[in-house]
Amino acid sequence: xxxxxxxxxxxxxxxxxxxxxxxxxxxxxxxxxxxxxxxxxxxxxxxxxxxxxxxxxxxxxxxxxxxxxxxxxxxxxxxxxxxxxxxxxxxxxxxxxxxxxxxxxxxxxxxxxxxx
Amino acid sequence: xxxxxxxxxxxxxxxxxxxxxxxxxxxxxxxxxxxxxxxxxxxxxxxxxxxxxxxxxxxxxxxxxxxxxxxxxxxxxxxxxxxxxxxxxxxxxxxxxxxxxxxxxxxxxxxxx
Lengths: 116, 113
Prior knowledge:
By secondary structure, chain A is mainly β. Chain A is built from no helices and twelve strands.
């Protein structure tokens, strides 16, 4: 079974500080893509970052970076210099290759609050 | 502007009534998806479609139906058989292929009167 676990339902961080959101997943496939999506109060889902499992180098996107540990099936998101606009629900997700249905598997989310 | 449009933003259903949620995209994406979002449960896949006139059930298809007559449109009908329809519904689309990102609409909030 394909599963995604986000063990931190809620987190908070002071503005300008750094925070790490954890995610573990389970799949028997050896190749897949991992994603972090952000859902702000507007509820519009926005892609934050994407990681290809066959690449050892961790993906970065401005203040957002990941720590991808393939053997441990771990995919954490680090947000540096947190800003008030980072307040949102964050979802970890993955999709396996090959995949006949293009189906994403999502975690239950982590609600992040940035405190001024 | 290219994107995914969901309508209406808010929808109310009476007991025994079928309601249809609209999803339109002008991104020329082949694949489209419907998700249901409940508090504490993340996103669960209802139906998906990779090409016109073809669609597959997701994890929670019971009580829902879809059609894909045009590439741009993938409406979701919540039937009276869905006994707990109150939720936030998200539509997404992507270019076919596992590495491709899913893009989401702004969602529809469905409530039961």
